[in-house]
C-alpha cells in the first residue's frame, strides 16, 4: 500500500512540475512585456506559496485550478494576439 501511495505522490509531483513549466511557457509567450511579467510573477509566487503543501486532496484541487488557468491563459493570449494584430492593420 505504501508503494501505491508513493507512486500517487510521484505522479502528482510530475503533474505539478509539468503545469508549472507549461504556465511559465505561456507566460513568456504573452503578447506584451507587461502581461508577461504579470503572469510569470503570479505563477512563480503561487507555486512558491504552496510548495510546502502535503495534503494530496488539497494538491489535487490546486492542480485542477492550475489546469483551468492554463486554458484561460491560452485563450486570453490568443485573443490578445488577435487584438494586437488587428490594431496594426
Structure report:
This protein is mainly α. The chain has one domain (2-88). Helices cover 87% and strands 0% of the residues. The protein is built from three helices and no strands. Helix 1 runs antiparallel to helix 2 (33-49) and helix 1 runs parallel beside helix 3 (56-88).
Distance between the termini: 62 Å
The gross shape turns out to be elongated
Structural class of the secondary elements?
mainly alpha
Number of strands: 0
Main beta sheet? none
Task: Specify Rg, calculated over alpha carbons.
Answer: 16 Å
> What is the domain total for the residues?
1
The poorly predicted ranges are none
Mean pLDDT: 87
Q: Helix tally?
A: 3
Percent helix among the residues?
over 70%
The H/E string reads HHH
Strand content: under 5%
SSE map:
Layout: H1 2-28, H2 33-49, H3 56-88
Helix pairs in contact: 1-2, 1-3
Amino acid at each position: 500500500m505504501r508503494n501505491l501511495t508513493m507512486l500517487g505522490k510521484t505522479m502528482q509531483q510530475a503533474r505539478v512540475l509539468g503545469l508549472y513549466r507549461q504556465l511559465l511557457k505561456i507566460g513568456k509567450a504573452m503578447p506584451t512585456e507587461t502581461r508577461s511579467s504579470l503572469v510569470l510573477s503570479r505563477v512563480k509566487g503561487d507555486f512558491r506559496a504552496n510548495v510546502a503543501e502535503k495534503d494530496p486532496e488539497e494538491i489535487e484541487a490546486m492542480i485542477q485550478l492550475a489546469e483551468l488557468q492554463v486554458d484561460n491563459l491560452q485563450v486570453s493570449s490568443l485573443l490578445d494576439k488577435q487584438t494586437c494584430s488587428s490594431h496594426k492593420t
